[in-house]
Amino acid sequence: MTTLRFPSPPQHDAAEALRGEVRAFLAETLAERSPLHRADSWNGFDRDFSRKLGQRGWLGMTWPKRYGGHERSAFERYVVVEETLAAGAPVAAHWIADRQSGPSLLKYGTEEQKQSVLPGIAAGETVFCIGMSEPDSGSDLAATRTRAVPVDGGWRVTGTKLWTTGAHHADYMILFCRTSGTPADRQAGTSQLLVDLKATEGLTIRPIIDLAGQHHFNEVHFEDAFLPATALIGTEGAGWEQVMSELAFERSGPERFLSSMQLLIELVGVLQGAPGEAAQLALGRLTAHLVTLRRLSRGVAAMLEAGENPGTHAAIVKDLGATFEQDLPDIARGLIDAEPDAASTSDLVAVLAHITLNAPSFSLRGGTREILRGIIARGLGLR
Amino acid sequence: MTSMSEIGTMLADTAERLFASHADAIDDAARDGRWPAAAWAAVEESGLPLALVPEEQGGFGVPAGEAMALIRLTGRHALALPLAETIIGNALLAAAGLPLAEGPIGLADGAQARVPWGRFAQTLVYASGADLHRCSSRGMATEGSNLAGAPRDILSFSGGESRAAAGASLLELGALARALQMAGALERVLELTVEHVSTRVQFGRPLAKFQAIQQELAKLAGEVAAASAAADQAADAYVGGGDLGFAVAVARARIGEAAGKANGIAHQLHGAIGFTREHALHRLTTALWAWRDEFGTQRYWTLAIGKRALEAGRDGYWPMVVAA
């Protein structure tokens, strides 16, 4: 398969009707939010905001109603996601749960797990974190060392998860770990377990401060922590297949090219007062990229809606998207004369400082650029 | 992609067969500066030049989306004939109520433009202001050619008829054709490159097995996917009646950039053999280098988007992106 054609996103009237409603809600709710805070959309943790989205029926949108969902289409969910991100809303309290933990539980979880956890996510009440990376297992996820040993009535877990965004706020983690064999068995013998972070003993969560001085990452240490037998998600030993499916949810959305959106918006705002050819050319190029990325990304949503596996397509969008997001700060620097400073009274200069310091993460989180390109090469039949 | 209509499938099959069977003759003629009369006669006989002309005006009633696919196919073959120009030119003539063309069309955006295949064109179609002109006699002012060796001549027009142009502008449609052709050519460039690295063995294994090669090929695939999507978006705007000017501008800016990057990677991965006249790659890459600046340069279209973005301003920017 050499040609990677993306399906045309359909014109979806219900989704477009929803767009106006979402914009009006965001304009009102975020009226006081500064551009600098808007630029921190992914990391903005605000349970109140997430609860408001839940009340409007904009979380768990595609899930069955019996689990608190709203049985709407992937295109309607797409509109809510892209509008909240473009507006720089604080999405961290529902982001992971709505995007990947919930859909994973819906696909693989037990009836009890679905009933006890999904309604809380759809209400914007329940916060999730991701238990994948470890000190010796980042891109190489199959090298996981965290081990759950079967004991009477459940599991005893020992090991360390790393780069766990939001673990200090989260209610639950989906833990990827080894339940049989040894790390030499690679993908075989791995499973996923649902961890109730507030009710599990033997857990320590330690902050890791990033280069910008922010606390989003954590190290989560399990020391002989007991999990009940009911914590198992899906099938014991099928963890690899399940975690790959979870990653496909993680890689497919518009968040993969909207991280620097506030910088682009502030740049347009400053340059509209002093347009010149250099500004027009730079913005013309960036806009052509953005419009095209959006088309590609909605093509992935169309594949998801049709029940197809968009693994390779999602990797292409994320790779192109991260490059776009990361190029933006330097392009902005070429167009304005200023020292980046988050304390600046100029919104553009403050946002530029924030995005510059955070940009390295864009091609690391959710699969590094190199891993994604390996996936694309496999899709082309090279490996 | 939606399923092809019967007439569309037939035309696409015919086109594929025609382009393949006449490829050598067309290529030889282009290299020697001759007109491949037999190949063009076969193309005309097939009815392809009328793909976008409505049935009641003498066309075949091919759905517009499938005519777009045909134009894309001419790019995939790096076809050295003014077929895309003739399809577009006939559509413009029909829309303006002028008689359809005799023979190949020289499609010119203005009287001073470099006309693709000008010296071989039998009918000239050019726009000036709000008018569309059709004439068949002209004088040669300056002969020129593009990077693929295709004629680009400045002509002096005289006589003929003119009417008020209707529908999409000549410049937009010409630019749309080049966007589609580039997307088609880029898809073929990716195929050739995958084929080459899969079969070429160095250090005891196919090039495709080296991670350095895989990473470059993934970048190439990303550029081609973006180009393909941008061309689809412009074609959809034409077929569905969206904002064609903006969609074409986006397509030309994004695909032009993709063409430059993709050509660089494809040539690097092909090694020296891809730099020769005997290898097929150059027919695609030289055409891509040329097409990205025809019917408006890449810079022209990029500027047009930038102006729109600044007019939209801080608050109107995101809605503009979504409406595209």
From TrEMBL, chain A:
<dbReference type="InterPro" id="IPR036250">
    <property type="entry name" value="AcylCo_DH-like_C"/>
</dbReference>
<comment type="similarity">
    <text>Belongs to the acyl-CoA dehydrogenase family.</text>
</comment>
<dbReference type="InterPro" id="IPR052161">
    <property type="entry name" value="Mycobact_Acyl-CoA_DH"/>
</dbReference>
<keyword id="KW-0285">Flavoprotein</keyword>
<dbReference type="GO" id="GO:0005886">
    <property type="term" value="C:plasma membrane"/>
</dbReference>
<dbReference type="Pfam" id="PF00441">
    <property type="entry name" value="Acyl-CoA_dh_1"/>
</dbReference>
<keyword id="KW-0560">Oxidoreductase</keyword>
<dbReference type="InterPro" id="IPR046373">
    <property type="entry name" value="Acyl-CoA_Oxase/DH_mid-dom_sf"/>
</dbReference>
<dbReference type="Pfam" id="PF02771">
    <property type="entry name" value="Acyl-CoA_dh_N"/>
</dbReference>
<feature type="domain" description="Acyl-CoA dehydrogenase/oxidase C-terminal">
    <location>
        <begin position="239"/>
        <end position="380"/>
    </location>
</feature>
<feature type="domain" description="Acyl-CoA oxidase/dehydrogenase middle">
    <location>
        <begin position="129"/>
        <end position="224"/>
    </location>
</feature>
<dbReference type="InterPro" id="IPR006091">
    <property type="entry name" value="Acyl-CoA_Oxase/DH_mid-dom"/>
</dbReference>
<feature type="domain" description="Acyl-CoA dehydrogenase/oxidase N-terminal">
    <location>
        <begin position="14"/>
        <end position="125"/>
    </location>
</feature>
<dbReference type="InterPro" id="IPR009075">
    <property type="entry name" value="AcylCo_DH/oxidase_C"/>
</dbReference>
<protein>
    <submittedName>
        <fullName>Acyl-CoA dehydrogenase</fullName>
        <ecNumber>1.3.99.-</ecNumber>
    </submittedName>
</protein>
<dbReference type="Pfam" id="PF02770">
    <property type="entry name" value="Acyl-CoA_dh_M"/>
</dbReference>
<dbReference type="InterPro" id="IPR013786">
    <property type="entry name" value="AcylCoA_DH/ox_N"/>
</dbReference>
<keyword id="KW-0274">FAD</keyword>
<dbReference type="InterPro" id="IPR006089">
    <property type="entry name" value="Acyl-CoA_DH_CS"/>
</dbReference>
<dbReference type="GO" id="GO:0003995">
    <property type="term" value="F:acyl-CoA dehydrogenase activity"/>
</dbReference>
<dbReference type="GO" id="GO:0050660">
    <property type="term" value="F:flavin adenine dinucleotide binding"/>
</dbReference>
<dbReference type="InterPro" id="IPR037069">
    <property type="entry name" value="AcylCoA_DH/ox_N_sf"/>
</dbReference>
TrEMBL record, chain B:
<keyword id="KW-0274">FAD</keyword>
<keyword id="KW-0285">Flavoprotein</keyword>
<protein>
    <submittedName>
        <fullName>Acryloyl-CoA reductase (NADH)</fullName>
        <ecNumber>1.3.1.95</ecNumber>
    </submittedName>
</protein>
<feature type="domain" description="Acyl-CoA dehydrogenase/oxidase N-terminal">
    <location>
        <begin position="9"/>
        <end position="81"/>
    </location>
</feature>
<dbReference type="InterPro" id="IPR009100">
    <property type="entry name" value="AcylCoA_DH/oxidase_NM_dom_sf"/>
</dbReference>
<dbReference type="Pfam" id="PF00441">
    <property type="entry name" value="Acyl-CoA_dh_1"/>
</dbReference>
<dbReference type="Pfam" id="PF02771">
    <property type="entry name" value="Acyl-CoA_dh_N"/>
</dbReference>
<dbReference type="GO" id="GO:0050660">
    <property type="term" value="F:flavin adenine dinucleotide binding"/>
</dbReference>
<keyword id="KW-0560">Oxidoreductase</keyword>
<dbReference type="InterPro" id="IPR037069">
    <property type="entry name" value="AcylCoA_DH/ox_N_sf"/>
</dbReference>
<comment type="similarity">
    <text>Belongs to the acyl-CoA dehydrogenase family.</text>
</comment>
<dbReference type="GO" id="GO:0043958">
    <property type="term" value="F:acryloyl-CoA reductase (NADH) activity"/>
</dbReference>
<dbReference type="InterPro" id="IPR009075">
    <property type="entry name" value="AcylCo_DH/oxidase_C"/>
</dbReference>
<dbReference type="InterPro" id="IPR036250">
    <property type="entry name" value="AcylCo_DH-like_C"/>
</dbReference>
<feature type="domain" description="Acyl-CoA dehydrogenase/oxidase C-terminal">
    <location>
        <begin position="171"/>
        <end position="305"/>
    </location>
</feature>
<dbReference type="GO" id="GO:0003995">
    <property type="term" value="F:acyl-CoA dehydrogenase activity"/>
</dbReference>
<dbReference type="InterPro" id="IPR013786">
    <property type="entry name" value="AcylCoA_DH/ox_N"/>
</dbReference>
